[in-house]
Design brief:
The protein has 183 residues and is an alpha+beta fold. It contains 4 helices and 9 strands. The strands form 2 sheets. Strands 1, 2, 3, 4, 5, 6 and 9 form a 7-stranded antiparallel sheet that branches. A two-stranded antiparallel ribbon has the order 7-8.
């Protein structure tokens, strides 16, 4: 009877994988390599990356998870010109402390910022313009998550993502399209 612990089993599998001839290993076909990040993948599809269940995240596209959902923003009351609205969003992001735009085009912005919690982490901010609907969709998520031992529950960001997004939206004068708010 063969008895081994988890460590021995993993080392055995790792040894087998490393010893397997290169011809038997999976290699993706040319041009089918995975994007470098969830944000890069989402940009190629013109959607925002999803909010993982195990991270601090808020998104206007997380309709299936109410704890991670935030209403999309409407710029229609401020301007009828989507390009002017888009420029003002990019300017607001540049004025936001510690936010750096890393990728931008005519309908998508990806920015990064140091996380408030965990303190040495990074937050991703994504914005996607829907000009025909006069809407901006967004996502703000922590790349790194700390957990409460022994549970698989991430420690809260204490509303930091929501406050940062609200500050940006209020600076722009835009309103959230939330069905339960009275205007």
């Amino acid at each position: 009877m063969l008895v081994c612990n988890r460590r021995e089993a993993l080392l055995t599998l790792l040894g087998w994988a490393l010893a397997t001839p290169a011809a038997l290993r999976f290699t993706p076909a040319p041009g089918l390599t995975a994007p470098a990040s969830a944000a890069a993948s989402a940009k190629s599809r013109r959607t925002l990356a999803k909010c993982p269940a195990t991270s601090n995240c808020i998104s206007s596209t997380s309709v299936g998870n109410p704890s991670k959902y935030g209403a999309p923003w409407s710029f229609a009351e401020v301007t009828d010109d989507p390009q002017a609205a888009w420029r003002s969003l990019q300017e607001a992001l540049q004025q936001q402390p510690n936010v750096q735009i890393v990728e931008s085009d005519d309908a998508y912005v990806h920015a990064v910022s140091p996380s408030r919690f965990p303190s040495r982490g990074t937050d991703d901010l994504e914005f996607l313009m829907r000009p025909e609907e006069r809407l901006v969709l967004y996502r703000s998520a922590s790349r790194d998550t700390q957990y409460i031992y022994p549970f698989a529950q991430p420690l809260s960001d204490f509303g930091h993502h929501q406050r940062r997004l609200d500050e940006i939206r209020e600076r722009l004068g835009w309103r959230p399209l939330d069905w339960n708010q009275v205007y």
